[in-house]
Amino acid sequence: MTDHVSGVIENPRLLEQLGVPPYQQRWPWLGGDLQTLRDTLRPVSLPPDHGAPLQISVPALASGAAEAGQLLAYFDRPIAPVDGGCSQPRALVVLLHGLGGSSRREGLRRLGLSLQGAGFAVLRLNLRGADPGRDLAGGTYAACCNSDLLPVLERARQLAADLASEASQSSPIPLYGAGISLGGTMLLNACLAMPGALDGLFCASSPLDLALCSASIERPRNRIYQRWLLERLVRQTLADPFGVSADEEKALGLEPPRTIRAFDAAITAPRWGYRDVDAYYAGASPLPRLLDQPMALPPTMLLQAMDDPWVPAESARRLQSALVASGQDGDLDRVWVLLTHRGGHNGFHSPGDSLRQGCWSDRLACAWFSRRCAQDQGR
Q1: What is the second-level CATH architecture of the domain 2-226+284-377?
Q2: Radius of gyration of the chain (CA)
Q3: Using alpha carbons only, what angle is made at residue 75 by residues 172 and 127, rounded to the nearest 5 degrees?
Q4: Has this prediction a pTM greater than 0.70?
Q5: Are residues 147 and 60 in contact, defined by beta-carbon separation less than 8 angstroms?
Q6: Which one of 21, 32, 111, 270 is CB 3.0 to 4.6 Å from 344, fit for a cystine?
Q7: b/e code 38-76 from CB counts within 10 Å (16+ = b)
Q8: What DSSP state is assigned to residue 354?
Q9: Other CB atoms within 10 Å distance of the CB of residue 196
Q10: What digits encode the pLDDT tens for the residues 59-68?
C-alpha cells in the first residue's frame, strides 16, 4: 500500500498481524541523518552489563591471514518479570553488531534488553577483530564470514538445547538471529550457506548489495560518516595483537585508505580469500541469491528505511517486488521486506521509546520473534 503522505510502500497487513503501529519519527530526530546520529548525539545510560562471557572456537582463515582463535560472546538470560513469574527463555536470539561495532554498542545493547524484557535469552557476539575479544582471534570480519559464524550458530543451537533441558522442556527452544546493519548481511549469508542454521531472522538496515552500499557511503554528503567508520576500522585493524602484514601496515600507515572500498581492497578482500574487492562485493552480497532462492532462508523480516543515508533502499525494494511477483509474501512463514519512509540507518526512534522497550525497530523485532514462537509452538 502507498502512504500518500510520505510516498512509502508499506505492508500494513504484516504490522497488523504483529500488533505494531506504523512507524513515526520522534521529535527532534527528524530526517535520516538525525535518526542515524541520535545515539551518538544523545547516548542513554545503559544498565551494567552482566552478560556471562562465552568463548567460541573458530578456525583459521582459509587465506592464511589469521590463525585459529576464539570469538567472545555474552549470554543474557531473560529479565525476570516483576510479578516473580517464570523467566525461562521463550527462545535464544543471537545478536550481531554492524561495521565498527561490538557487543557493547548502544544499539545492540538496547535491542538485547528489549528482547530480554520480552522473555528471550540473548547471545551477543563480538565478531573477529571487535573489542572486547580483540585479543582472542587475529584478523577482522567480513560481510560473508561463514567460517566464523557457522561454529557460532552450532554452539548457539547447543546452548538452546541446554536451556530447554534446564527448564525440563521435552523439545529444544527455537534459535533466532538478529543483525544490525552489516551484522544482518552476515546472518543472511550464513543462512543461505547452511539452511536450518536459524529458525527465524530479523535484519535492520542491512546491506544486500555491497557495491551499491560502498558507492552510497562515498557520496560527498557522507564524507563525515565515512571518515568516522574508517578511523574505527583502521584502529581496529592495527590493534591486532597477532600483528599485521608488512603490506597491510603500509596500506594503513603513511597514506591510509580514504574510502571503505579502498579499505576493503587492501584488507578485507585479501584476508578472506577474494581475488579483489569487486570479487568480494559480488561474492558477499546476498541479493542475487535472495532473488534466486528466497525460500532457502528461515522466516525472515528485512527492515529498511527509504531515507537511510548509508544503505540504499533500492536493493530492498527490488527484493520486495520480486517476492510479491512470485507470490512468496503471503504469510509469516516467508521472507518479508518492510520499508519505512523514515528511520535513517538503524535509527527508528519514535514516540514511546524507552530503555526497557527500546526503539520502534526493537519493538518490531520482539513482536516478530514472539509471533514466530507462537507459530513454532503451534506446529
Answers
A1: 3-Layer(aba) Sandwich (3.40)
A2: 20
A3: 110
A4: yes
A5: no
A6: 32
A7: bbeeeeeeeeeeebeebebebeebeeebbeebbbbbbbb
A8: B
A9: 11
A10: 999 999 999 9
